[in-house]
């Protein structure tokens, strides 16, 4: 069974940093691209970033480019999102999701809440 | 404002058939496959349709998807109360180099 479990969310002040993690199980992690998708309160789903299985290809939404860094450790079957220079508008539930590159995701985690507030 | 457009709301009575539309452009829906998701607050989005019209195992055949040109649609037949949720379409966008989601459609079962 495919399982994706996010962690690392919490309350952080504007301008601060936070690192999200996603632990994967139930599939060959290195064979899949991985993604972060977020949902701000009262809004829809927004794609944040994607990384290919070998980390050769990485893409970011314009809204986070230069502030967020996606990475993965295939040996640990883990995905990460390093978030810096956080803004109030980054407040959202962040989901880890699996996909084939250049396609939307199939399996999603339950999400972790990030709140940016002073 | 989303690059891909969905109606913000839809409704139907139990047993009825409802269709949700998803309108994009040549750089997303027009050149890539579409997925549809069902999302309940506080839960993980659930894949309903992939590759425009394919259902994952376990998804009832009441759910069907189609695509034509730069638009796609999700049809739900035999509407049930548990179908009340938010529905999103998504596709890769070749110009933006990322996944684009529709704004979401809130389905109400009257």
Compact overview of the structure:
The complex is a heterodimer of chains A (118) and B (110). Chain A has 118 residues and is mainly beta.
Mean pLDDT of chain B: 96
Strand order of the largest sheet of chain A: 2-10-9-4-5-6
Q: How far is it from the N-terminal to the C-terminal residue of chain A, by CA?
A: 40 Å
Look at the helices and sheets of chain B and give the structural class. Answer: mainly beta
> Which stretches of chain A are low in confidence, meaning pLDDT under 50 for 5 or more residues running?
none
Radius of gyration of chain A: 13 Å
Query: What's the number of extended β-strand segments of chain A?
Result: 10
Which strand-content bin applies to the residues of chain B?
A: over 45%
Strand content of chain A: over 45%
Computed structural class of chain A:
mainly beta
Query: Whole-Å distance between the termini of chain B?
Result: 28 Å
């Amino acid at each position: 069974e495919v399982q994706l479990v996010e962690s690392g969310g919490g309350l952080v002040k504007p301008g601060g940093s936070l690192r999200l993690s996603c632990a994967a199980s139930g599939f060959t992690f290195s064979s899949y691209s991985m993604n972060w998708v977020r949902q701000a309160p009262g809004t829809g789903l927004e794609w944040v970033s994607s990384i290919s299985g070998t980390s050769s290809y990485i893409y970011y939404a314009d809204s986070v480019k230069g502030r967020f860094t996606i990475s993965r450790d295939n040996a640990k079957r883990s995905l990460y999102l390093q978030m810096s220079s956080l803004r109030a508008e980054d407040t959202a539930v962040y989901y880890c999701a699996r996909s084939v590159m250049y396609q939307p995701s199939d399996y999603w985690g339950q999400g972790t809440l990030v709140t940016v507030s002073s | 404002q989303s690059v891909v457009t969905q109606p913000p709301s839809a409704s139907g009575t139990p047993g009825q058939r409802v269709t949700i539309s998803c309108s994009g452009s040549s750089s997303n829906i027009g050149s890539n496959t579409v997925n549809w998701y069902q999302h309940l607050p506080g839960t993980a989005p659930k894949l309903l349709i992939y590759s425009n019209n394919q259902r994952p195992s376990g998804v009832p055949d009441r759910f069907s998807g189609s695509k034509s040109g730069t638009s796609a649609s999700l049809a739900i037949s035999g509407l049930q109360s548990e179908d009340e949720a938010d529905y999103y379409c998504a596709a890769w966008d070749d110009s933006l180099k990322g996944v684009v989601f529709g704004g979401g459609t809130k389905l109400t079962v009257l």
